[in-house]
Amino acid sequence: MGQLSTTQLIVFGANGATGHVIVEEALRAGHAVTAAVRDPAAFRPVPPEIRGANLSVVRADVRDVDSVRAAVTGQDAVISAIGPAGGRADGLYSAGARALVSAMVECGVDRLVALSSSGVRRDDPNHPLWYRVVARTLLAELYADMRRMEDIVRNSPLDWTFVRPARIVDEPPTGAFRALDGSNPRGGTSVSRVDLARFVVAAVDDERWSRSRPTLAR
Q1: Rounded distance, CA 146 to CA 84, Å?
Q2: Of 26, 113, 122, 142, which is the most buried if we count CB atoms within 10 A?
């Protein structure tokens, strides 16, 4: 993949905790951003100094391929920050992956950066013991559906990147995190939400992470 000159980004899950920060950081980086949400009227405002004319909000249900197709038409790249409100996925990640792959292939949009989780890799020796226990019990269904999402996208022709953060915390960004392809950085347990969002936005144009699974932790 050569260096992209992306200007049109669409963010699915744009009203979620991380998705909304991704929208803000993409605007700060100078991109034209489309926020794809189920209810545009409920979209939380962004600071007026960064909104300008570079933000549009559209209605899209990531489980509905027709609405996804309409939303991605004309975009340069897609960011997926979808996630359930609770601790169960109920097929959201895998259904969203199927809709995104179908719509993007049909519309000729190649680049996808999707949020996943460090917990997706069950055999990662660098996970703390408590994390392994939680991942295999309380969050087992959630991570299983994330793995299905990754499989669906990985087997598509898309140019994909799965960003796998450790525990996301609402603390000031420091830039002091590590990113390894496919494994949790040793001793790392968390990452700032803003640091994560900045990494996701930068990864869209960063060929180093094409078809890889950067795992973030500090």
Answers
A1: 11
A2: 26
